Amino acid sequence: MCVCVCVCVLLLLCHMLGHFLHLPVLSCFLSLVSRGAGGWSPQVTDRQPWLQLDLRDRMEVTAVATQGRYGGSDWVSGYLLLFSDTGRAWKQYRQEDGVGRFAGNVNADGVVHHKLSHSIRSRFLRFVPLDWNPSGWVGLRVEVYGCAYKSYVADFDGRSSLLYRFNQKSMSTVKDVISLSFKSRQAEGVLLHGEGQRGDYITLELHRGKLALYLNLDDTRLRFSSGRVAVTLSSLLDDQHWHSVLIERFNKQVNLTVDTHTQHFRTKGEGDSLEVDYELSFGGIPLPGKPGTFLRKNFHGCIENLYYNGINIIDLAKRRKPQIYSVGNVTFSCSEPQLVSTTFLSSSSSFLSLPATLSASGGFAVRFQFRTWNPDGLLLSTRLALEPQRLELQISNSRLRLTHHMSAQQKEEVSTGHRVNDGLWHSASLSSRGLQVTMTLDNEPSSTMELGDHMEAGDSLYFGGCPSSSSSDSYCENPTLAFQGCMRLFSINSQPMDLNLVHQGRLGDYKELQFDTCGIHDRCLPNFCEHGGQCSQSWSHFYCDCSGTGYTGATCHNSIYEASCEAYRLTGSSSGLFSIDPDGSGPLGPTQVYCNMTENKVWTVVTHNSTDPVRVQGSTLQKPYMMKFNYSASPEQLMALVARSEQCQQEVVYSCRKSRLFNTWDGSPLSWWVDQGGERRTYWGGFLPGVQQCSCSLEENCMDMNYFCNCDADTDSWANDTGVLSYKEHLPVSEIVIGDTNRTGSEALYRIGPLRCYGDKSVWNAASFYQESSYLHFPTLQAELSADISFYFKTSAPSGVFLENVGLKDFIRVELSSPSVVTFSFDVGNRPVDLAVKSHVPLNDRQWHYVRAERSVKEASLQVDQLPLRFLEAPSEGLLRLRLNSQLFVGGTAARQRGFLGCIRTLTINGVTFNLEERAKMTPGVSAGCPGHCSGSSSLCHNSGRCIEKNSGYVCDCSQSAYGGPSCKEEVSVSFNRESSVTYTFQEPFSVMQNRSFQASSVYRGNSRARENMAFIFMTTQSPAMLLTVSTFSQQYIAVILARNGRDTSTTHLSIDQDIHRKYTLSSDAELILIRSLTLGIVVGENVDEEVMQAGSKGFIGCLSSVQFNHMAPLKAALLNRGSSLVSVRGHLVESNCGAPADSTTSHPLSDQAAKTNKDNISLHDSAVIGGVVSAVIFITLCVVVVMTRFLYQHRQARRDASIKEKEHQTNLEIACRREAAYQDAMDESKKEYFI
């Protein structure tokens, strides 16, 4: 146990040139407020002041404290803390969440303590002031707390290793604990290796700056294959600073910890023990029989406190114990290389200027190393002796590019490398000899550029960027961005450059640099991208690629699918296959179900792997027949679906002949089924669990009233015990066991139907608040890193708090702050943030309004109804975690002030729907449910129509629907001729808004979406025909074309067969940015591809009906607003019913893969033209629905590169759904649906 000591600092003046404080470690606690202490204050002329402490030896520092100068107005309000073993190479200390800034003082006398979340083991500390009293100057007194630190160190030179030899031939363990610390000079190298003849192995090595652990237990297949799978953790481990490693294994369960990050996993192999033969090697893998030869690249650096199952390996080696054999030169003190880095902080203004020294052989040669995350940035620029020529070496699109500018219009370029922005160190060199200039990257072949004349560099070389244009050397220009990253090992004409001289102002010049440290930081560690999103990063930000995850948003938090079939019905969808996400943004992924939307109920149908009848013979109770059912959803998804539903049921068709369900003598079961929790169930119908009986007993119509089941009569003729299981907590059936079919003539025939559920308990789960001091309380909100909150409300009150949860300092709140403003507020420790959305109409109009607030580590957003989304970007350097400790209050606050008066329903937070009704039943001032015609689950308004309360009833607002009429069920249709078109121009994009309460920018971005929903009905005999075109201000477009059959398939066309249902997925990486207009019919004057223009010039002859685009109904709006400036009508238009009643149409907005009802799934990549052919001479009514999630057509992309991939869908799923639909008699088999 270490004794805590306080490192007491004599407060002396120290400026940026580094007057170090050499202080003894004292066992004392001196007050920082002792009079006469004065304090440290740098000279006003110091460009980068800092205070450095020398602790005389490596210590374990656990806390720091600061105070301003005594008796003055000088203090530091914010600072960085750096540490180093040598006093040359420094590393910035980062607190939890990667925050590097420490909060300082607000006056000269107060003491601010910071307990370090993870201790520092170092000799030197450096305090770097960032901010100070604006009315004074930098003033600082410091105190450091910690303990003495002892270590056992071994130095490996890259050609050495230590072997720990066992006392017996092999060592077999079921539990291992291995711990060590290391600091490495390179990104590759083996730290630990052991293997056995049985196939076991363990290898711990550095690979590309990350730590990789290979571990296998008793699996010879993996030993001799090239497919070894590693568990990798952490990154940037080649920074020449100490990193701790802990491996804990018990049987197959393994915990790998690197610094503060831990990963849990199960190892491969058949056994539970690790069997290693002869020895463990550390620092390399020696080749047996060949001393000095190694199988892999050895570790080059230092290892300390290396323990293997409690054995101190380095201590044994140091004492030359016989168990340890040393290969090569292993020493027991850590040598410190002088590899000092410099950080270029700004992507716009950082630069380093160094003089170009003379070369004895003529020409010039420059070498340096760099590391960065940014894909673009200037590395080097120099003027040549032949003006105005200059050379530029830059990173461009993640490659290294050399450009020779011969004049303003003439240049020559060569490129090399790939992904040089991977965060690793790369070596770059540039040299000229004769009429050639050569560029070399790492160990790759050199790239050469021929010159027209001999070339020499100018007076100065600019690294990382250029000075401002006002300087005399205005020839240097940043091509795109300045370099943001780290550089080291500068050499000009074979002469190393001492950056200490630059720092002291004695050599060259610089701006926005941080010397003696590399400030690179891995923002993808930990990975804040959810649901399998891929993280990428730049120097100051990280980004999440959500492609293929089924989720969207800055951190892939939000599901692109609805939570239930009921939710799809409310959007106007009809029966079909849909993907649902029962827990929304929760950990469960989406699953595909069949939504059977009847007049009265919406059924969710989940199929399994055995829907056909199965005949069973020859089974006994000792050797029963067993069948496990694998559903199209996981057990967790099924549980969420069942819990969310109002009611579920599953039909069990069971026929028997001389096969009993229960023993006729003692009543013990001979057959049973297993529920979702794995429990055995012996009832075969109804909703009352635990009763050993069948449906005929419940209905009192068994063939023999002496028995509870027909099969128990044990007759030679066929009997039937079919029933419907409806106790939903037991559903679905996961297994069936049949045990009495082994007698002569004995057999059973069964079929387990799909799971069928209806209703969504969360959609209309509501509570009414009628006292301002009342509220509902729930457990503390678990939303440290992300939270999405959604609900509906209606009220007549001018203001009120919807919900609030607070911590010691942090809080989160959503409220109606005024009759037309909803405000989302929170604080994670940086400063309070307010997002407000103002409606142009009052929100306290007693009508339902939708609110969705989201906060993640990347941004926060607020949506109210269909108003434009309001969002704020989070600061790149700041606290991330929302720390709450009180209860969640809904409808009020803990202070019982500003309570909400009205109704709240469907409150969902992070995919969990809160049961407001249940809590309201036991809370005074709150009642379950909400009065009004529009507060029930019955659909009064169809096709996305909005129900509006009236004093004596209700009306349907069809303004957001493509349909009309009292209930939004009547089609709005128009007949077109060849010259006809309707263009609906969307309003100009909203301008950028600034939220003055926060430093990050805030904009309305409602016009840029990652998803576009389109639905329409058409009838025509013309092909090709232009159906619909959507264009944007950025020259993107989507074109939906009915193409001629039998076209050349070199472009992307597809024939639509009348007997096949197909869905098409358009793939691209872009979004529609700032949508300008939507055109139906003929297209002229648009900047589109030739093929699209040809189809557009021929227009459309036929009928278009019920056109929906996102939340707009452009065809309906055009008819109702012909005089509007937003509507442009060309040619002759005639309103028509298109010959089809509204209730026979199929308008089917699908979310991504939600409505696939066929065997084929086709993916069209990049640009695509969608084609279908109507081959009949009679009119055919088709429903065409296009739903894209980040899938769109972007102008000027290569059409010829498009590819079509066709996949077969599982036939049993389609057959089961069709059988179920026929069973319910809810689908007309004559209807056909075509999905594009």
Walk me through this protein's architecture.
By secondary structure, the protein is mainly beta. It is 6% helix and 41% strand. It is built from 10 helices and 90 strands. Strands 57, 59, 64, 65, 66, 68, 69, 70, 75 and 76 form a 10-stranded antiparallel sheet that branches. Strands 44, 45, 46, 47, 49, 52, 53, 55 and 56 form a 9-stranded antiparallel sheet that branches. Strands 1, 2, 3, 4, 5, 6, 7 and 8 form an 8-stranded mixed sheet that branches. It is globular. Residues 1-36, 989-1009, 1046-1069 and 1140-1236 have low confidence and may be disordered.
Q: Shape, please?
A: globular
Query: What share of residues is helical?
Result: under 10%
Rounded Rg:
36 Å
Helix run count: 10
Total strands: the figure is 90
Mean pLDDT, as a whole number? Answer: 80
Spans of at least 5 consecutive residues whose pLDDT stays below 50 are 1-36, 989-1009, 1046-1069, 1140-1236
In whole angstroms, how far apart are the ends? 70 Å
Helices and strands: which structural class?
mainly beta
Q: What fraction of the residues are assigned to beta strands by DSSP? A: 35-45%
Q: Largest sheet at a glance?
A: 10 strands, antiparallel
Which oligomeric form is depicted? Answer: single chain
